[in-house]
UniProtKB/TrEMBL annotation:
Species of the source: Paenibacillus marchantiophytorum
InterPro entries: CdaR_GGDEF, Homeodomain-like_sf, HTH_AraC, HTH_AraC-typ_CS
Coiled-coil portions: none
Record protein name field: HTH-type transcriptional regulator YesS
HTH araC/xylS-type domain ranges (all copies): 672-769
TM spans (from-to): 21-47, 298-320
Alphabetical keyword list: DNA-binding, Membrane, Transcription, Transcription regulation, Transmembrane, Transmembrane helix
Pfam families xrefs: GGDEF_2, HTH_18
SMART domains: HTH_ARAC
SUPFAM superfamilies: Homeodomain-like (SSF46689)
Keyword Isomerase carried by entry: no
Record keyword DNA-binding present: yes
Length: 773
């Protein structure tokens, strides 16, 4: 036991005293494993407490929104049903005349209407109509009762004389028997908008209806819920009969802030409030914070247990993982040591540093071998530079690359491309299968000529049976112009052509002092070589495109594509075809690269198919189920004119036709909606703006659609509807001309003028003529 204890003490002492990477890794791993767990544990507890309140608040907001929506919809439905009853056939008739001619019929009609309204609105505690002439209150529940009290009759008469056509009253309404309980009461004049109403309509909703809705959402002990009107008057509540003092003012002060703390009766509450957009009522919920913290305490206990378990497993895993990670390092160091004695003053890093010094000499030998391969590497770098592989490099990075490959900077650059056309005629030195040999011979000839002319440059195999020469000149030699390079190119062409006995063409670029423009110079030389198909080969062809980039770098006309898509979406055939013509013109910039034209039309085809898909048009309707691949069809077309014709016939025409059909159907539905609205509400003061707002259109656009679909303007159709209805009333009723005018939405003078303009006689003359017949 003593020996074992000494061994363990020696190992632990050696672990803590000796410099080792393993000790540092263990310390760091434990720190990384324990600290984040502690931070996460503490943060989780703090976050959970806040999250519980936040979630409860969000839940309360949803609850209050549900309560508000339920109550608002109930009030709105009852109000709309009451308005519909008051605007219905019975109350729109001449009640005064009915009262004088059929007294019992009047009250039986009122009772019938009230019963129907009561049966359709189960939430209503009572529905009644008060007629001041007899002082009678008619109700489906209580029957007919006479209001004997003069103060009550005076209060009801004052209500009848007020300017309000319809309003809600909160709380008891003592002027009526049975209405002195909490709740809300709708008071409306009967009939609405009449100059001399015959009475008042009362619809009472008891407080219990609201409380039944609120009770369904109470979840916590001590939770309270209040509904206050816009002035702070209590409508109803759950959990307390009184509104806490200062609560309404605090809710108004907080504004849009939906959650805040509030102390009441030595209890802290979390208050959530919303405001109804229908009637500006405040819906307020108060939950004791103590109830919320009860959930957080449980979460805290669970979090502490999880943190403790994670700390234990984290420490064990850190020790195990560190040992696993360190094992390759330990093996590497042991392998590098090769049986050497340990250095107590140096750790693994120090030992590897010593070994690095030993490897440096070996690296120098390898560097020398690399220098021998520099010409080939330099050529590869130059080829990548010509192809634009380093355009994304910064100036400093590019300068470093030039220094690495011994390429002179701050020189004027130019590029020539040498192309040869192998012939099968007799007398040639090389055949088709000798292309690699030809390229090798051309490179040697160029290198010897550069050396003889004392010019600097890099000869590059383009790997496409062509050779490029990147030439550098001192800016001080620019006074010589392009003549020296042209002479060099012409002499080179003659030498290569005579030696190879082939047709040799050299493309010559412009000059530039900026390394970043070398890829453009290369493109210029390539374009010059390609043009031999037009101007002829076996010569030096200098690029004549100036400094413009349109011939070298083709830019896809994205703005034309976007405009083309918008035109298809709007169904504008003329504009879509015009965009196709503009697209064809833009292709002239890529006429030297047919593959770019083909790719551009591929992209335009994709845009058109995408537009058709977004519009809901099946591609089978464009090309048919058994049609060939449209992209393959583009490859078979040889001219831009044929491409445009095919696009217009197979894409533009069916898409535009589909959009027009869809728009026409939507327009017909909108116009029918306006027509129904006119026929149902012609007796009101209607306007084009009202109908446009209903349809979600501008008045001007609705006017154009209406005229197009109905062949008459909006005002002409409205006038015709009103005149037709007035003729029906003149023929079938004994209503006066003034009453008829009011029934069809006109003032009397305007009605007589419009009637005579359309019928040719005044309403009175029309009725008189009809009577004589």
């Amino acid at each position: 036991m003593i020996v074992l204890r000494k061994v363990l003490n020696y190992k632990w002492k050696r672990f803590f005293q000796r410099k080792t990477m393993f000790r540092n890794m263990v310390t760091l791993a434990l720190f990384v494993a324990i600290i984040p767990v502690l931070v996460v544990g503490i943060g989780s507890y703090l976050y959970s407490a806040s999250a519980v309140q936040s979630e409860v608040n969000q839940s309360n907001v949803r609850i209050l929104n549900n309560v508000s929506a339920t109550i608002d919809s109930t009030l709105d439905r009852i109000q709309n049903n009451g308005i519909q009853m008051l605007l219905g056939t019975f109350f729109s008739s001449n009640l005064t005349e009915l009262k004088n001619t059929n007294y019992s019929g009047l009250y039986s009609g009122i009772a019938r209407e009230l019963s129907a309204l009561m049966s359709g609105n189960k939430e209503a505690g009572d529905v009644a109509i008060y007629v001041p002439d007899e002082g009678y209150l008619t109700s489906p529940i209580y029957g007919g009762r006479k209001i004997e009290s003069q103060p009550e009759r005076d209060a009801l008469q004052k209500e009848l004389d007020s300017e309000d056509q319809l309003k809600w009253v909160i709380g008891p309404y003592p002027a009526l028997p049975g209405y002195n309980v909490n709740g809300v009461t709708l008071i409306a004049k009967a009939p609405l908008l009449a100059k001399h109403p015959i009475g008042l309509l009362f619809i009472r909703i008891d407080e219990a209806q609201f409380q039944n809705i609120m009770n369904r959402f109470i979840s916590y002990d001590g939770e309270q819920m209040f509904i206050l009107d816009a002035k702070g008057q209590l409508v109803t509540s759950i959990g307390s009969d009184e509104v806490p003092q200062g609560l309404f003012d605090l809710v108004a002060q907080k504004g849009s802030e939906q959650r805040f703390a509030f102390a009441y009766n030595e209890t802290d509450y979390m208050v959530t409030s919303i405001t109804s957009s229908y009637n500006k009522w405040q819906y307020i919920n108060m939950v004791p914070i103590k109830q919320l913290n009860a959930k957080s305490n449980g979460i805290a206990t669970i979090t502490l247990i999880i943190v403790a378990v994670c700390l234990v497993f984290g420490a064990l895993f850190a020790l195990w993982g560190t040992r696993r990670v360190y094992r390759p390092i330990q093996n590497l160091v042991a392998h590098v040591k090769g049986g050497q004695a340990d250095d107590a003053e140096a750790d693994e890093v120090g030992f590897m540093h010593k070994r690095w010094a030993e490897l440096s000499s070996t690296a120098n030998d390898l560097q020398q071998q690399l220098s021998d391969q520099l010409p080939l590497i330099r050529e590869i770098f130059a080829l990548q530079l010509l192809q634009g592989r380093f355009l994304h490099y910064s100036p400093d990075q590019l300068a470093g690359m030039l220094r690495r490959y011994d390429v002179p900077a701050e020189r004027e650059s130019s590029v020539i491309v040498i192309a040869f056309d192998v012939q099968t005629d007799g007398g040639v030195r090389f055949q088709e299968n000798d292309r690699d040999l030809i390229v090798f011979a051309v490179k040697n000839i160029v290198s010897e000529l550069l050396q003889a002319q004392e010019m600097e440059g890099i000869v590059i195999n383009l790997l496409n049976d062509q050779v490029a020469v990147w030439l550098f000149r001192d800016p001080m030699q620019m006074e010589e112009g392009d003549s020296s390079i042209k002479l060099f190119s012409e002499r080179l062409r003659v030498l290569v052509s005579d030696y190879l006995r082939l047709s040799v063409t050299i493309g010559l670029s412009g000059q530039s002092e900026r390394i970043g423009e070398v890829p453009e110079l290369y493109e210029e030389a390539l374009l010059a070589v390609r043009s031999r198909m037009i101007v002829g080969g076996n010569q030096v062809i200098a690029h004549t495109g100036g400094s413009g980039h349109s011939e070298i770098h083709y830019r896809y006309p994205l703005e034309i594509e976007t405009h083309f898509e918008n035109s298809l979406q709007l169904g504008d055939r003329e504009e879509a075809e015009r965009m196709m013509d503009e697209f064809a013109k833009s292709m002239e910039e890529a006429i030297h690269k047919p593959e770019l034209i083909q790719m551009s039309y591929y992209r335009l085809l994709t845009a058109a198919i995408r537009t058709a898909y977004l519009l809901g048009l099946d591609t089978n309707q464009l090309f048919g189920e058994e049609s060939s691949d449209p992209y393959l069809h583009i490859r078979k077309i040889s001219t831009i004119l044929e491409l445009n014709t095919w696009f217009k016939a197979c894409l533009v025409e069916p898409i535009v036709a589909f959009v027009h059909g869809k728009q026409h159907q939507e327009h017909e539905q909108l116009i029918q909606k306006v027509v129904r609205y006119i026929e149902e509400n012609y007796h009101f003061d209607l306007s084009l703006d009202q109908c446009a707002q209903i349809c979600g259109l501008s008045p001007h656009y609705l006017s154009k659609l209406f005229k197009k679909n109905m062949d008459v303007s909006f005002i002409e159709y409205l006038t015709k509807t009103r005149i037709d209805q007035s003729i029906e009333l003149l023929n079938t009723t004994d209503l006066s001309v003034s009453d008829v005018a009011e029934r069809v939405g006109y003032q009397t003078k305007n009605f007589i003028r419009v009637f005579k303009k359309h019928i040719g006689v005044t309403p009175g003359q029309y009725r008189g003529a009809d009577s004589e017949n």
